[in-house]
Amino acid sequence: MLKISFNPLIDFINALNITHNIYHLSEDALVSIQDADDFTHSCIEKALLDGMFDAVQHIKMGDIIEFLAGKITGTEFIDRSINKTSASFLVEQFMNERNRDAINQKYLSFKKELQEAKNIAETLHYNSGYEKSNLLNSIGLGLEYTIIPQLFMRRAPFGRYGYVIEQDCSTTVTIIFGTSREISLDNGSRFYEWYRYGIWHLIALHALKQKVAEIIPLEFPDFFRSIECFHPSNRIHQNLHAYTSSLFVNAVKLVSEQNVNPRNTISILMKEPYSKGLYHLEFFVSNLQRTSTLADIDIETILKKWLVHIKTDRSMPPFLGPLEACLYPHWNKGMVRAIFSPGISLNVRNTLLSIYKKVLKIEIPEHDISENIIQDLGHYNNLIFLTSVDTKWIQEAFSELKVFIDGPLTPDTSCQFAIRNPSNPVLFTKISISSVDEKLPMLSRMGKASDWIAIKDNHHYQGEISYRSGGAYFELP
User: Fold this and answer.
1) How far is residue 434 from each of residues 370, 389, 412, measured CA to CA in Å?
2) 148 with 45, same domain?
3) What is the pLDDT of residues 373-389, one digit of tens each?
4) Range of the domain at 134
5) Are residues 289 and 356 in the same domain?
6) Residue 7: CB atoms within 10 Å
7) Are residues 362 and 300 part of one domain?
8) Of 109, 258, 320, 395, which residue is most buried, by most CB within 10 angstroms?
9) Per-residue CA distances from 450 to 269, 320, 329, 438, 455 (Å)
């Protein structure tokens, strides 16, 4: 059963953050910055408004949302908060009947925008395909769904929050998200994806978290110190509970996504979460693929097998891409060098170094390409910048890194790809080749979710790199 409702109190906090430039509305938002200013200042006097904004900055937004949504009481909200003075002040203001009435009344004046937001929420829910998950179908059919679209929250997927509540013999999935007109355009395919992933995430986590807590140690055990991928510089979770839950939940989402889009192979779907630090995702995916529904899974057996499994391979998993993974600290570990061909001007060289230093937040040694540098590629993470006329260096780099491209790399083609180093697969080399050096800064910002991208005759292409016979293979158009 679906229920769409509004929460003016949460959106009041969103609007307050907009007026102080903490949040920014998208160009296709249903409301404006002026609307946010009118909403906040017409409800509460400025002195109290400033106090509320200051209090909000000292408290987790998730706790504020759960309090204003009624998931937790004011007392629970204060107990959770480190800054209890700020929490107490917010409780006092939002429990004040005059303030609540003023906020609710003003919010209703956005009648047209609220109707549009409701339509967007219905479109997302009924067109997202969340119900096509075979794993979760038996669980999801018995759930109730409460969707709370927001006018002033950042546009989803950046602005969203969700939780599951069991109460009075029923289970309710609640999703709160920021709306925009773009969700209604072009079938909203990107938004449908994050919406169904969100529902699957909440359902799976709710079904699994108790078993994970019962069986998996909270902290990483001592023996994990000898497993390279669990070194603090390589892991993205603070404890073993969180890591295991993320693996299990993401496996559920990927197997479910294949039900919606059968043409997407699991290997492609796994690449993004793997690159973000879920190195052992394949274990859970392979176990879930053998089961028809999550209700039939022997979660306890899988978790115990998992504890045995992670002790068997103590090495760091190999780099698999995509291009964006080169920017993640657990892959670059603060060790990246930039290599330039003679055709790269000093101005472009400095621009590229500035871009990568700003993103990676590390110093990047720079080198002129040479025979010695090429022969030493396997010992470092590398960013190599070339122009298409540097055929000698392109050929030597490809030979050293065992890169095999099927298709012509013509002088007018720009190409960028990231591969693992054949002699040391936990390290990467990212190669950017452009027809002219001035295009390299723009090229470096493109294709983050792909293993390779190419631009030819103003057409953009992208794809996946396969590793076989000791080399990296992909096909250019």
Assistant:
1) 19, 9, 8
2) yes
3) 999 898 999 999 999 88
4) 2-185
5) no
6) 18
7) no
8) 320
9) 12, 11, 18, 22, 13
Kindly state the helix (H) or strand (E) to which residue 417 belongs, with its residue range: strand 414-421
Q: What percent of the chain has pLDDT over 70?
A: 97
CA 274 to chain centre: 12
- Examine residue 209 and state whether it is found in any structural domain, yes or no: no
Taking the CA of residue 276 as centre, how many other CA atoms within 13 Å lie in the half-sphere pointing to its CB? 11
CA pair distance 413, 477, nearest whole angstrom: 10
Q: In what order do the strands lie in the sheet with 471-475?
A: 403-406, 471-475, 466-468
Per-residue pLDDT of 238-286, as tens digits, reads 888 888 899 999 999 999 998 888 887 888 888 889 998 898 899 999 8
At 140 the pLDDT is 58
CATH of the domain at 426: 3.30.379
pLDDT over 80 (residue 137): no
pLDDT of residue 141: 62
Mean pLDDT along residues 45-73: 95
Domain annotation covers residue 224: yes
Select from 146, 163, 185 the last residue of a domain. 185
> Which long-range contacts does 34-37 make (Cβ < 8 Å, 24+ apart)?
35/110, 35/151, 35/152, 36/152
Q: Is residue 197 part of a domain?
A: no
Q: Parallel, antiparallel, or unpaired for β 381-387 and 336-340?
A: parallel
Residue 247 identity: L
Rounded mean pLDDT, 119-123:
93
Q: Are residues 333 and 464 in the same domain?
A: yes
What's the mean pLDDT in 152-159?
91
Tell whether 236 and 120 lie within a shared domain.
no
Backbone angles phi, psi at 148, to 5 degrees: -120, 90
Q: Is 176 found in the same domain as 242?
A: no
Tokens of 132: 């096509």
Residue 267 and residue 291 in one domain: yes
Same structural domain for residues 242 and 93?
A: no
Is residue 285 situated within a structural domain? Answer: yes
Mean pLDDT of 278-305: 85
